[in-house]
């Protein structure tokens, strides 16, 4: 009788505990998700909602021929991208999709996975993700420079500098008065200049 009671308690405890979001690197396409089309929201494209309500945003997709559709049911294998910050203003977690299969077709015609374009601009306020970053981080100046032919944007605030790719991904940030590996990497950008400053 005591053994049955202990087993019952253990089952109750295991059912009641919530598992944190983890790297789903084991298995092949074993996580089910529902596709949500967020194309109209700046910096977003498709979000993948898991059964527990967690939302993922694909940043990299191994199968670029896969077609996504609103309300499509899929199975995926993914890796968390912990050092990536996207311009999509949601709580969705950035992931690399290494395996994907359709379980049920969506309600719209399928669309290819598209990464955000790399945009080289001299007018940062005209670029929606950059404009929002300027406002949210109380930026006083935006500078631009190049690594080879790829532009990078450095946003300067009161105490911090933030480095963004031309697609809107945060590369790194550092305090203006301290030396860092981030600063060392980006202080030698080619054609480095200011393209906007707070008046």
- Helix count equals 3
Molecular shape: elongated
The assigned structural class equals alpha+beta
Largest sheet: 5 strands, mixed, barrel
Number of beta-strand segments: 12
Distance between the termini: 77 Å
Structural overview:
This protein has 199 residues and is of the alpha+beta class. Helices cover 15% and strands 39% of the residues. It contains 3 helices and 12 strands. It has a 5-stranded mixed barrel with strand order 1-2-3-6-5. A hairpin with a 2-residue loop joins strand 8 and strand 9.
Features:
single chain; alpha+beta; 199 residues; disordered N terminus; five-stranded antiparallel sheet
Secondary structure: elements and pairs:
Elements: H1 2-16, E1 31-37, E2 46-50, E3 55-61, E4 67-68, E5 73-80, E6 93-104, E7 111-112, H2 128-136, E8 141-147, E9 150-156, E10 160-165, E11 170-175, H3 181-186, E12 190-197
Parallel strand pairs: 3-6
Antiparallel strand pairs: 1-2, 1-5, 2-3, 4-7, 5-6, 8-9, 8-12, 9-10, 10-11
């Amino acid at each position: 009788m005591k053994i049955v009671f202990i087993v019952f308690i253990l089952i109750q405890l295991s059912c009641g505990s919530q598992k944190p979001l983890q790297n789903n690197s084991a298995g092949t396409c074993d996580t089910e998700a529902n596709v949500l089309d967020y194309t109209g929201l700046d910096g977003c494209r498709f979000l993948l909602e898991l059964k527990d309500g967690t939302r993922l945003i694909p940043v990299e997709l191994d199968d670029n021929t896969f077609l996504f559709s609103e309300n499509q049911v899929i199975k995926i294998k993914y890796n968390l991208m912990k050092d990536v910050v996207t311009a999509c203003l949601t709580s969705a977690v950035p992931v690399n999709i290494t395996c994907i299969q359709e379980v049920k077709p969506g309600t719209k015609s399928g669309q290819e996975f598209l990464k955000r374009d790399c945009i080289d601009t001299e007018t940062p306020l005209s670029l929606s993700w950059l404009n929002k970053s300027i406002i949210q981080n109380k930026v006083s100046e935006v500078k631009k420079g190049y690594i080879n032919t790829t532009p990078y944007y450095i946003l300067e605030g009161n105490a911090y500098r933030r480095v963004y790719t031309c697609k809107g991904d945060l590369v790194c940030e550092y305090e203006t008065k301290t030396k860092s590996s981030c600063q060392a990497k980006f202080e030698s950008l080619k054609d480095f200049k200011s393209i906007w400053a707070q008046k």
